[in-house]
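debug: dumping io for the single-chain case to check the tokenizer round-trip. Nothing else runs in this session.
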Amino acid sequence: MQSGFEDVRQRGFLSRHKVEEVMQKLEEFKINLLEVEEIDFRESLNRVCAEDVVSKRNIPPFNRSAVDGYALKAEETFGASMNNPVIFRVVGEVEIGEGGLIEVQEGEAVRISTGAPMPKNADAVVMIEHTSKIEGDYIEVYSSLPPWKNVSRIGEDLREGEVVIKKGEIIQPHHIALLAASGNLRIKVFRKPIVGVVSTGNELVDAVEVNTVEAKKDLQEGKIVDTNRYMLMNLVRQYNAKPIDFGIVKDDLETLRNILISALKKTDILIFSGATSVGTKDLLPEIINEFREVGDLFIHGIAIKPGMPTGITSIRGKPVLLLPGFPVASYIAFNLLFPKIVFRMYGLDFKEFYPPGSILKAVAGMRIPSTAGVRTFTRAILEKKGDRLFAYPLRTSGSGILSSLSKAHGIIEVSEEKEGIEEGEEVEIRLINYFFG
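debug: decoded output
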């Protein structure tokens, strides 16, 4: 058994680790890197790019018109105005998708559509509204144009060899469009991490089986439906990882030990829900300690509310999270730790990543209490009054009140240094119900 393990069951959480301390210690964890795989660009949504991707061609690949109008030589329009129009002879027409050998000579113009390739010798396009047709094939031009006015030049969007997507970027729909345009039909991405999810506790029954006669009787006799497992597996999916369901495990040393051994063989990350506090039946810390190797850190007890009993370690380079049994505490602790762990597995420095629009600024509509020395995550609702957005803490906010995550619009994070947020103070609220992966 690994020496130096502190008996949290006896001492409780008197030496809770501050969040910043935990984030720093995560850098010291032994964490295996994920392999790189090559995939079709069409299947790359939300994957993490494993190398800088460069354009294989210029975009656009030719000079093209940015407006509907007439292509001509810019220098021939110098001095043109409503009172002093310049006359051009129209010698042809180019539509989008057409090519050819059409060219303009002195005093000539070519009718052109937006996106169509520029005729040879032409270096500007006059907009239709700055012209008028006159007798025969002639037009009057009332606007003086500098060279390349209203022209999208070759490589204006991307130059051949220019970086399209940087290593570590999360590929979004607009990136996929760039991959198509730049000729990158196969790209290298990090393999999706495989995440095992286990619920622990003698009191749990499975939601799928709850309608049986026996299960209904169990609920009446103090059992509860396991909700965390389903929540956590889908939180895992939101981070584009693959969950494996290891079901409900009873509070038994041998059973828990066997599930740990089995899960470590099949996963990159392992998450336990429940069995993390300091009660007599919370056995996981004891079992984890049996498997840790010399140098493996074990953090147990984080100064957050809710989620204080959270634990984290790594075994054979595979992170193991011990999350609280109360669903809100489990939700908060997961979102605090899981993104950092995954970035480490990508071999990247973690950067706070939240989708555009997922964090809003609001005004505290009433005082939001917290405890100094503990980072508090408060569920809140939003209300718009006039042109201002106000945030109010939910009155029913215990860490076991699962419905509060549905009722809340978002979560307000209060730092350890503050003893609450005063009414009228500006706050940031991270939206809960937001599509991001």
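debug: round-trip ok. Residues 40-59+159-190 form a domain with the Molybdopterin biosynthesis moea protein, domain 2 fold (CATH 3.90.105.10).
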